[in-house]
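Retro notes - structure team

What went well: the batch runner handled both jobs without manual restarts.
What didn't: labels got mixed up in the shared folder, which is why I'm recording both outputs here explicitly, each with its sequence directly above its tokens.

Job 1
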Amino acid sequence: MASNTSRTMIAAFQVSLDGFIQGPNGEKDWVNSWADALEMIPDVDTFVLGGHMYPDYGAYWESIYANPDRVVPYQDRIPAKSEIAYARLAARTPHIVLSTTLKSVSWPTAQIVRNIAELRKLKGQPGKNMYVVGGATLVASLLNEDLIDELRLIVHPIILGKGLALFGGVKKRLALDLVQAKPTESGRVIVTYRVR
């Protein structure tokens, strides 16, 4: 059961129909825009991510923020307007990076926390929603610790067969309440679940 605090922690992900966030070789080419998830998270004042995800995340969004008219890292296109808007928001929004191994973070608004207890304390402080960017290991850890209040998923009409499972590290059964399911013209379905 999600803890009852003054802040809501929301994990938003793009996921294949069979529950993967990457293909077996790390493929993410089926995701059109990494900024789409932010549109589902209102009133955010903190982003949360894990130490494994942070280096690529930081490089990707810092590059777009610094050079919005150049080709996006790991892509062969210039950034979309929604990605530029996300990069600008990310540049001014505090980021909490949960890591026991990272020595430093380059993102100007980022800080490292070393354990779940520190993150739980931050969640208990007054504020707006906390957006859990990822990755899968972090989300599983937070679900196992009853810290995530909502899951918002963009389910893509693709079956990957293998890959990195979004919920592969969850160690217990979790009951969810459906809040909303909305189909899109592209065939994706945006679903929101509240964790009981």
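Job 2
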Amino acid sequence: MGQVFLAREKKTKRSAALKVMLKDRAKNPENVARFRQEADALARVKHPNLIEVLDWGQDEATGVHYMALEYLPDGSLGDLLAELETLPEQEALEITAGICAALEAGMDHGIVHRDVKPDNILLDADGRPKLADLGLLKNVDQSMGLTASGTVVGTPAYLSPEQALGVRDIDIRADLYSLGCCLYEMLTGRVPFVDDSKNVIDVIKRRLKEELPDPRDDRAELSPGTVQILRGLTARERDDRYAFPSLALRDIERALAGEPVLGVEDMDVTSKPRGREAKKPAARSGGRGSRPAPSDSSPVLVPLLIGVLVLLLGGIAIVLSLS
């Protein structure tokens, strides 16, 4: 729906990621409504595990719809997995915990992401994960649906079974399933049910019929607690998953502390923890270098407008007024 460019604030010289809606997509009122819905939702949510929105709106001179976002030059979880294939168990759990906290913050504002995947999980300089790209989000409190019943929305490799079936009443448990697929990939180096053929239909069929493969087939040393958490995130039936991200986060924190996890069955959903924030991840040993990869989407609207951003497109400086 849009393009993202590396931009610079004229006065402070601070870098930002500028998400601009493509003009041909802007001709469709539904696309514009979705873009504005994303920006509005991000403006209502503030959390350290969500990308920060600096400003958003429509430029009066050009009519361009835009969002100015926090720029993280260290790339995404997808970039990291492309480089390392797998992550240490503790680091994988810490990243999962951070995204659980982000999903909880969004859920508390009536938001379901619907496209959680490694490319939408950005990493800051400290390794803290930040959820990005809420372009497919669903506001569960909104009476006007922007997605028709029976429409499949999301990325097939990380899609929950109910999304694959086109179920209309998608809730936060779909995001937890997708996050579980990300955790599985961090631990094993592959996405569950995605074989070498990468046939989308086969992947979806297997997801609807088969249980998640045991990650210990690839890494025998994984702890039982981590496997139990993974099962609680990716159960085929959503009623068998964690009911809320904070409940998964509580188990992850127990696993990281070396304590037995509670699991889905032993949790009292009436005592859901609120307002959780994942602990800061431990520093990686050796570092991983910088990979400029501006990405999009996030949550709090800062009252200070960013002024003028200078864009470099093919060596041509384009100035967009954001005031």
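One thing worth noting from job 2: The first helix runs from residue 23 to 26.
We'll revisit the folder naming next retro.
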